[in-house]
TrEMBL record:
<feature type="transmembrane region" description="Helical">
    <location>
        <begin position="138"/>
        <end position="161"/>
    </location>
</feature>
<feature type="transmembrane region" description="Helical">
    <location>
        <begin position="227"/>
        <end position="246"/>
    </location>
</feature>
<feature type="transmembrane region" description="Helical">
    <location>
        <begin position="417"/>
        <end position="440"/>
    </location>
</feature>
<keyword id="KW-0408">Iron</keyword>
<protein>
    <submittedName>
        <fullName>Cytochrome ubiquinol oxidase subunit I</fullName>
    </submittedName>
</protein>
<keyword id="KW-1133">Transmembrane helix</keyword>
<keyword id="KW-0479">Metal-binding</keyword>
<keyword id="KW-0812">Transmembrane</keyword>
<feature type="transmembrane region" description="Helical">
    <location>
        <begin position="193"/>
        <end position="215"/>
    </location>
</feature>
<keyword id="KW-0472">Membrane</keyword>
<keyword id="KW-0249">Electron transport</keyword>
<feature type="transmembrane region" description="Helical">
    <location>
        <begin position="22"/>
        <end position="47"/>
    </location>
</feature>
<keyword id="KW-0349">Heme</keyword>
<keyword id="KW-1003">Cell membrane</keyword>
<dbReference type="InterPro" id="IPR002585">
    <property type="entry name" value="Cyt-d_ubiquinol_oxidase_su_1"/>
</dbReference>
<comment type="similarity">
    <text>Belongs to the cytochrome ubiquinol oxidase subunit 1 family.</text>
</comment>
<dbReference type="Pfam" id="PF01654">
    <property type="entry name" value="Cyt_bd_oxida_I"/>
</dbReference>
Length: 495
């Protein structure tokens, strides 16, 4: 076993490691922005609709500020997304050259959706104070659809890499007779797309709510912070149990369509029934598992609802066709962390629902807001773990069952790739530092504007003014709401 592994390691081209590291770093960095690109437009429009429907100037102020954050995030996403587009061709020419005609349409759809989203964001930002209120809102409504279309393209490409279909192979092993519809709607597409989309909305909701949870912990109990917390957190809490069901669905799909990936995820070495479930633990090259919590028969029950379910093990295929013991352990830990975070979020959502049902108000416990503040960061960790589970679990295949990663890698020398990797790391650190600096600057400016608005003597700053109509004109005269309706319900309402 050790000899075979050593031979495989020696046979791997030297440029494979830096190419993998570069792709992993850029993907892991870009995916942190994806939840906000996909879901923040929808959350912003929900707040925007509330502001217009109730004549609520606080809600409109939040929507306008979130739209500014959305634009800055989109600009950063353009940079990191463009780098990824180049890397597919530069680092993996073997895959793109042979298989690009089969699954490349997904990348084309994502590119067009990206362009459309940029146009719609520009229109939405321009519309504040320049368009009629409801006209502005309706022009922004296609934004979430464009974002979901972009996710559609990427997930179509990724699901094809996991369950490739829609082609036949000629005598030279090249794909011919491509069926684009089958190549897009693969067996993994549905479970993967909906799991991904809900994860993005859930993550964005918890992250945005977490920002205002920190403000509430610091004593800012005004309606601005309460509403800024309540709407995104409520949306995320509603989606959390739905995500649990979708997560179970995609795990079951992997069990049926990618049994070796499932075996790596659950560190199953030998094909058998009554297979135990391990929570954490380390898989060794001889098939033994050390550490972790062993629960008898549970893996078979989770896979097929009965202890007698037969689970395929890693040893059922040759060593060169399966993840290594180290890779399987990484996938297993990533999956367990993701599941644990999801389970804790269920408890947090139940806590919130229980308090709201009893008191029709936001919870008052500081521990609740501490947990809510951490939930956003935990969701980002879960997103990273989901990506690790999907990509590392597929190893050694870049196209599952058809092309190994080593056959797709660029012939460029390893030293050049390590230099490129160093440059990309430096550039990304600068980009994300600039992103954070811009967000902090915007936060400071908004706080100054709010302070001047609260002061009777200081002039109002532009950000504190109504988003519609001439500056200084009351919102009620613009939206048609009665003066007593400008602020909607009393503080504490989440709906």
């Amino acid at each position: 076993m050790h000899t075979t592994t050593a031979l495989l390691a020696n046979a791997a081209p030297p440029q494979l490691l830096p190419a993998r590291q570069l792709m992993a770093f850029t993907l892991a960095s870009h995916i942190l922005l994806v939840p906000f690109g996909v879901a923040l437009p929808c959350i912003t429009l929900l707040m925007h609709h509330r502001g217009l429907r109730r004549g609520d100037d606080v809600a409109l102020k939040l929507a306008r500020r979130w739209s500014a954050v959305m634009a800055v995030q989109f600009a950063i996403g353009v940079v990191t997304g463009t780098v990824l587009s180049f890397e597919f061709g530069l680092l993996w020419p073997g895959m793109m050259g042979r298989w690009g005609d089969v699954f490349g349409l997904g990348f084309g759809v994502e590119a067009w959706a990206f362009f459309l989203e940029a146009v719609l964001i520009a229109i939405y930002l321009y519309g504040w104070r320049r368009l009629k209120p409801w006209t502005h809102f309706w022009l922004g409504l296609p934004l979430p659809l464009a974002a979901l279309l972009g996710a559609f393209g990427i997930i179509a490409a990724n699901s094809w890499m996991n369950t490739p279909q829609g082609f036949t192979l000629d005598v030279a092993g090249r794909p011919v007779d491509v069926d684009v519809r089958q190549a897009i709607f693969t067996p993994m597409f549905g479970p993967e797309y909906w799991h991904f989309a809900v994860a993005m909305f859930l993550t964005a909701g918890y992250v945005v709510a977490g920002v205002y949870a920190v403000g509430l912990l610091r004593g800012r109990r005004d309606r601005y912070h309460r509403l800024g917390f309540a709407l995104p957190f409520t949306a995320a809490a509603i989606l959390t149990p739905i995500q649990l069901v979708l997560g179970d669905s995609i795990a079951r799909s992997v069990f049926h369509k990618q049994p070796i990936k499932f075996a790596a995820t659950e560190v199953v070495w030998k094909t058998d029934t009554h297979v135990p479930e391990y929570i954490f633990g380390r898989l060794h090259a001889d098939g033994t598992v050390s550490g972790g919590l062993r629960i008898p028969q549970l893996d078979s029950v989770l896979a097929g609802f009965r202890p007698g379910t037969r689970v395929t093990g890693l040893s059922s295929v040759p060593p060169e066709d399966r993840p290594t013991a180290t890779q399987a352990t990484i996938v297993h830990w990533a999956f367990d962390v993701m599941v644990i975070i999801g389970s804790l979020l269920i408890l947090l959502a139940l806590w919130y629902a229980w308090y709201w049902w009893r008191h029709r108000d936001l919870p008052r416990s500081r521990w609740f807001y501490r947990c809510a503040a951490v939930a956003g960061a935990a969701c980002l960790v879960a997103v990273e773990c989901g990506w690790v589970t999907t990509e590392v679990g597929r190893q050694p295949w870049i196209v599952y069952g058809h092309m190994r990663v080593s056959a797709a890698v660029t012939p460029t020398g390893a030293s050049s790739l390590w230099t490129m990797f160093t440059v990309v790391v430096v550039v990304y650190v600068a980009i994300f530092a600039s992103f954070l600096a811009v967000l902090l600057k915007m936060r400071t400016r908004w706080r100054i504007a709010d302070a001047s608005e609260a002061s009777a003597t200081a002039p109002q700053a532009p950000e504190a003014d109504t988003p519609y109509g001439p500056r200084g004109e009351p919102l009620a005269t613009v939206t048609g709401a009665a003066p007593g309706e400008r602020h909607g319900r009393p503080p504490g309402g989440a709906s």
